[in-house]
Structures are given as C-alpha cells and as structure tokens.
Amino acid sequence: MTPHHHRVNALAVGMAGVIAFTALCGDGQVRGEEIGPAPRWKEALPFRLEGEVEAGFQTLSGNTGSPTFFEYRDLAGKPTIPNLRLKAEDSVGTRFLELGGRNMTRTDGSFFLRAGEYNAFQFDFGYDRLPHIIGLNRTTIYSDQGGGKFVLPGGPLDPVTEGAFNAGQRNAIASSVNSLLHPTSLGFQTDTAHMAFQYLPTPDLTLTANYSRKEKSGTRPFGSVIGTPGGPVVEFAAPRDERIHEMGATAEYAKDWYQLRMNYTASLFDNGINQVEWDNVCGDGATCGNPSGFGRAAMMPNNLAHTFSGAGGASLPWWYTRLTGSVSYALWRQDQGFTPVSTLSSRNFSDAGATSPKAAMDVLLANFGLTSRPTSSVTLTARYRYYHLDNNTPTHTFTNALFPGDAGVVPPRSTMPISFRKQNVSTDAAWRMTNHLTAKIGYEWERWGRSFREAAESDEHISKAALDYRPTGWAISRLTYSHAVRTIGADGYVQVSPITAVVLPQFRKFDQADRTRDKVEWFLHATPLDPISFSLQVYAQQDHFFNTSYGLQQSRAYGYSGDVAWTPFDRLSFSGGYAHDDYQSRQQNCYIPLASVPCDPTNTYFSHPRDLLDTWHAGMHVIAIPQRLDLSLDYRYTFGRSKYGMRGLPGGDPAGDPVPMPDIKNVFHIVQASARYRVALHWTLKVIYLYERYRESDFTVDNVTPSLANVVVDGFTTASAADVRSVLIPIQHGAYEAHFTGFSVAYQF
What's the pLDDT band for 11 if we cut at 50, 70, 90? Predict the structure, then answer.
C-alpha cells in the first residue's frame, strides 16, 4: 500500500468521525425511548409530519496548513446544518413528501427530496458535493490567460546560456524563477445532481427514468515537456471544467418464480478545456527541444457512450435450481479532432490528413449462473462470464514521432488499437458433511485473447477448497485455499512495442507472464459469552513468475487482524482491534544504454519494494444517564511505511549494494469524543470533538522547491540543462495537528 493510500484511508476515518454525531443519533431518538406525543402545533396540521431539524456551528484550530487535512472534506469554522429530515403524509397515509440533507452549508454536503404515492409512483432528487483540495498556498511562474493558455510574464528564464551551468548561472535561473512566483489554487469541486422517476403501473412492473449531471470545476497539477527527449519539465495549475451527463430508463418485471430487467443508459462527457498551451521556459536554446513557440497538450476529449443491458432470473422446478443471467452491450465513441503537439508547424505530427481518431469501441459482457441443491446436504454451482472489448479505432500512422534512442531519420510510427477477450468458467460443490462441518471444492478456468499485446493468449487454471467448521453455536471458522497456474499460449511472448531498441527480449510484462499463485485465508468469529465476541483473520498470497528473466519475478502479501467487543453492562461497552498488512515484491532489472541490447550481465540489479501498514483502534460507549445522556470515545492509530531496497549496481561496481533509500513513513492519530444530551422531550444537544495528528516523511517530495536549478542530489547539483530549467509546483502533504469541535441542537418530532 502506498503512502497516498494510507492518507486516503486515514482521511476517510476522519470524515466518518466528523459526521458521527448524526450517525450516533440514528433517527434522532434516544435508545429505548419514543419521541413522545406530538406537539400542539403539529396536531393542528392537516397532514402527518415527522422529522428532525439540527443546526449548530463548528470550530477549527491548530496547524491545519496541510492539504491532507482538507483533501476530501470541509471542516472550516462556520454555521452548519448537520442533519435535516422532514416527512409528511396525507391523512390516509397514501402519499408522501420527504426532504432532508447532511451538512448542507458545507462543500461536502448533500440534499435529497422524495415525493410520491406508495406502490404507485415516486420522484427522487438529490444533490451531492465533494471537494478535492490538492494543494494549499502553492505558487507558479505562469500567468493564466484563460482558455487553457499559460504565459511567462518575464519571458524565457535564460535565453542565452547553453551547455553546462556553473553556480552563478544556476543561481541566476533560480532567482528568475523566484521573482515570477505568485499564488495559485490547486483543487476542484465535484457537484452531482441526480433525479429519477419511478412508476408502478401494476404490482409486477416497475418503470424508472433517471438523469444525472456531474460537474468538476477548479484546477489540477499538470506537467509536461517541450521537446522529446531532453526538454525541461514544467508544471502548472491546469483548469478543470468537465461535465458528465447520464440518462437512462429501466423496466423491471417480477413474478414469484422469475424476474426480468431491461435498461438503457447514455453517457456524455463534455470538457470545456480541450487543450492547454504554455510558454517555453528556456527560449531559443538548442537543448530546449523546441526553440520557440508554445508547448501544447490535449486534455481529456469529449466522448459518448451507449449501454444496453438485460438481466433475469428464474427458479426451476427441479432440485431447488436457480438460473440467472445478464447481457450488456456498450458503444464507446470519441471523435474529437487531433491536437498538434506544438504551435510550431515543424512539430505538428500529422496522420496523412486525418483530422480525428474516429475512436470506436464496442463492449460485450455476459454473465450466467446456475445453482442447484440435489440433496439437502449438497449444493452445486456453475458460472460463465464473457467480456469482449472490441477496439474498432482505425490504425493511425504519424511522422516525426520520437522515442528514446531515436537518431537520424525517424521512421513513421503507428498506433495500436488494443482489443481483448476474457472468459471465465467455474464450478464448485459444497457438501455439508455433518452439522458442524461443510467442505467445498471448486475449479475455474480463465482465458485471455489479446490483440496488439505480447501474449496473444493465456490460460489460467484455478483450484479452490474451503472448510467451514462450526464446533458450537457460538463459533464459526473458515479455512480457504486456492492454487492457480497461468501460462501463455503456443505463440509465445512476442514483442510488439515500437520501442524495440530498448526492450530486452527476456523482459515479461507481469499481466501477460507465466505465473503461479497460492492464496490461503483463515477466519474465526466467536461469542463465547453474551457480553464478549471476538474475531481473528489471517491471509497470505504469493505470486511466482517462473519464466521471467527480467521484470517482476515474485510478489507476496500477508496480514493478520483481530477485533474484540465487550459489554460488561447494558450501559457500557468496549471495542478494540489490531491489523497488520505487508506487501512486497522482487524485480530483476538491467541497465542498458540506448540501443545496446542485449543486457550486459554486469548491469543486472534487483529492486525490492515493500509496503507495511499497522492499525490499532479502541473505543468505549457509555449510557451515563439512561434515556438522557450518551457518551462515546474512540481512538485510532495507523503507521505506514514504504521501503525500497536494491541489490547490485549497474556495471558490477565492486562497492556492492547501493546505499538504501530512506523509508517513506506516515503516522496518523485520531481521537474522537461525542456526547448526546436529551434536554427535553423533543430537544437534544450534541457535541463532538475530533483531534487529528498526521506526520509524513517522504524523501521524493520533501524540500522540493519550484526551481530545480539549485537542487542537490547525493552531494551533486542536477547536471543536465533540462533539469536546471525545470520548474515545478511542489505539493507536500505535510504534517498537521488539528482540533475540531462541533456543537448542535436537534429538534425531533
């Protein structure tokens, strides 16, 4: 697991903590107590009304300058409406109107509206918001001219200097960069509006029409070069202005012994920014790759998709047999025009007059399943799945397309419209041997058929076994094991990449290589006493790529976890647990100078990436005053490490193995406390306190500055002219320590 995954998981925990005061309330009632008689104002209404209205405010303090803290949530101090739920029914209870929402004053809030007549029709509307903060207080040297165009107000950084750079020249470039820096925002907002209308003309038939609109607006970091190879890297805040429209219709028909479903969905992606252009940072220098003009890159193109699907199931009269199946067919289309790579005509790599890719893919997916129980102790299952991505995009041939190692006359290069088929056939049998023991065995066959890939075909055979053991009524244990062998077809592994000059013949891509996989899992859940329950889980998986000389050769993963819950009294409960995960792999590599194949054995070396994650959690809940006061306290701690080891040095350096790279670490603490106090019959006070502390150490981004002219690596400054002129937007997911408090009052009726 990468550090980014650790951050995302930690933030998800934080978001759950922020809204815990609404989740703890459930429907707004105190445990074991009804709301009570209706208030007088409600009795005077001509319709039935129930619900909850909650309002309050939230405060935030501490060191919250890291984008990690705000990445997917809005915790700024402000008034809030944590929860709103109102439901009205007519006097006879046939028609209804319901509306509500969560955190509606925040950028991560939601709102819904439902209305209709029970068992007749229903209208739904919803609006959801989600922020994504990528960077705070970031700077850039580029000025945004609008429409995706970025310029350097002061012109190129060094229009004269070429070749090697001395310290004074490096400092001059860094000074030029620093003088141009100005603030820029990094992040975007995703807003989704969706609606649906459901109509039930008969008890067996349901018709539904739906529409949704998703909009993403803001900025995101974008990096590119001018000239390949050898151009300087630049990064700027590219605009994001995207819309996804999706509409569909569904018909469902259900009888006692069979069910049918038909659906059509259309999806339209519209990008308001088709391309970005940016000034060349190094002016007329020959090492810039493009001596003048703007760099240019295409953004995600507009596209359209149509999907037709049908599904059904039937209960057959023999041996308690159930048959299910589904089929879908999708058409993916994209015909936006080609974008030249540069404003210079000499760099506009064209395809003999083609104006667009005319991209077209057809996707067929079919699933079928059959389950039967011939005896009370035996259950048989068979499944078949077919997936076919048929890429009908024409092959395009481009001139002047450069790859690493190219020199002199560059041959034309053609695109590869990759297609594939995947089939899965599986069967298994479960036998309840005794009241306490059930055994299960199974087999699965998977076949891939590929075009424009190195392995045209591959087959994988998977054997499975499981054992369920229930020694008593309060415990259950399951042990599973599977063994898989994947082999490529008779055509073997044939290189198809146009960059053949730097691809070793012995290299294998891991998704197409011969491989064995062994996986074992064990699970236990027990409740030995009414107040106590616990669970244990252990898993391990190992992949071995037995015909791979270069590339991924081995990967393994294992982990274990345990959880316990204890309720010594009706009003007091405790919980806790621990989990450990370990992922590691081994890859054999070879350093090869451009166009110097095969590999010199002395240039072989091994890399060993490894990710570890440890998580502890503990919690307590107490009903301090029955039907009046509830208290909760939770703590969670996660510690993630990413290690990267190497063995051997290119050239057979007698010094031996290289100096290990520093570990990437992240540590996360979260403490959450909440209280609910019933003030009066319909009134509840709620408070939540959230403490978060995050620390990260990542040598790949720590201390990176916008100008790379004076970056020092292993005691040496960057050597190439391109490196010296490269300009970035450093985005460090730095440490933070934050205190969040939310106060609210809720009225339930």
Answer: very low
